Amino acid sequence: MVPTLKGGGVDHLIVRPTHQYEGEGIYAVQSAYGKVEIFRAQNVGGGNIALLSDNATYRRRDVSVEEFNEMVLGIALHQLHRLRVDTPIVFARCA
Prior knowledge:
Oligomer: single chain
Shape: globular
Number of helices: 1
């Protein structure tokens, strides 16, 4: 999902478990190889869901709603970014 998610431990998602399609959004799904992957899911009609990546390297993959519901682990609620501090932080005790 690069560039939306940077990977390498820089970005994190807060994911709520679900076992069904709940509308367009970013989902965690389990691949056929047991790997957890992140996709943007979009209803394309005809009982199908498109699994999309914001990374142009990956092509769109269409699955049935039933297949999606079997592989979905959760829906993303929020994205967290690692904070960077460029200057030292000094803590002082006030008297």
